[in-house]
Specification:
This protein is 44% helix and 18% strand. With 257 residues, it is an alpha/beta fold. The longest helix has 19 residues.
């Protein structure tokens, strides 16, 4: 147990150091060159559905902005009617910038390790994060999410998947664009979340849209064209098969028992 805790503490410190330094963000410039892999009709549809659920769940809710970085999405939760929003991040630099961007009596930002959340049990109606779980020791992170989430509460995340061939190639050639400990999710990680937090309702995107979108961008094409719309139809079909785990991204939605 002591070794496990030491490993988690070491991971947290490495993540803190990486994100206090802007090198990781700077190294992700390749995303602009391959923008169609990240911005495409299927992704827009998934984002719209995610936003619809968040909007409904935010009304009079206590919301945890989990891995908020500089608070890019925090204001949205207030606009959707949240009674209280707390943004946490491992980076002191990011939290400092978040505090300078948003000032409201319903909002609080704090430096915190997601493996050891500084909140009472059953504190939040909604927990929302983006590209954060794959940086964490998932068993511990899921347990903490479940602990601070109210019964019937919802935890929603957007995370990369490990099986996508294009993503594997990109990760190989851009090692400086990620931290040492991060690892994209696979079906076992998703199943673990279902077991620890509660019933999962998940959506998958990017099996076809990511590679086709990257090619379209590299060729100078528009993201919203007939080819990308066909890729979106293909992603919908593949989401009903085991190939969904080879998509680029998963939209996770866990409801606490």
């Amino acid at each position: 147990m002591h070794n496990k805790l030491s490993e988690i503490e070491g991971r947290a410190q490495r993540e803190k150091k990486a994100w206090n330094n802007d090198d990781i963000v700077t190294a992700q410039g390749f995303k602009r060159r391959m923008a169609g892999a990240f911005e495409n009709p299927h992704g827009w549809k998934m984002e719209a559905e995610r936003d619809r659920v968040i909007r409904e769940r935010c009304v009079d809710a206590a919301v945890l902005d989990y891995g908020c970085y500089e608070g890019y999405e925090t204001r949205k939760y207030l606009d959707y009617g949240a009674s209280y929003v707390c943004g946490i991040d491992i980076s002191e630099e990011a939290i400092g910038r978040a505090r300078s961007r948003i000032s409201a009596h319903q909002v609080e930002f704090m430096v915190a390790d997601a493996h050891h959340l500084p909140f009472d049990s059953d504190s939040f109606d909604l927990i929302v994060g983006r590209a954060i779980l794959h940086h964490l020791e998932l068993g511990r992170a899921y347990s903490e999410i479940s602990r601070v989430l109210k019964p019937g509460g919802l935890a929603m995340f957007v995370e990369p998947l490990g099986g996508n061939p294009l993503a594997k190639i990109v990760r190989f050639f851009t090692p400086k664009a990620r931290t040492k400990d991060e690892r994209p999710l696979d079906y076992r990680d998703i199943r673990l979340g279902n077991e620890i937090i509660g019933r999962g309702n998940h959506s998958y995107s990017g099996f076809m849209s990511a590679p086709i979108g990257a090619a379209v961008s590299l060729c100078g094409g528009q993201h919203d064209n007939w080819l990308m719309r066909m890729a979106s139809v293909g992603d919908d079909a593949i989401a009903n098969t085991s190939l969904k785990y080879w998509g680029r991204i998963v939209y996770l939605s866990f409801e606490k028992r």
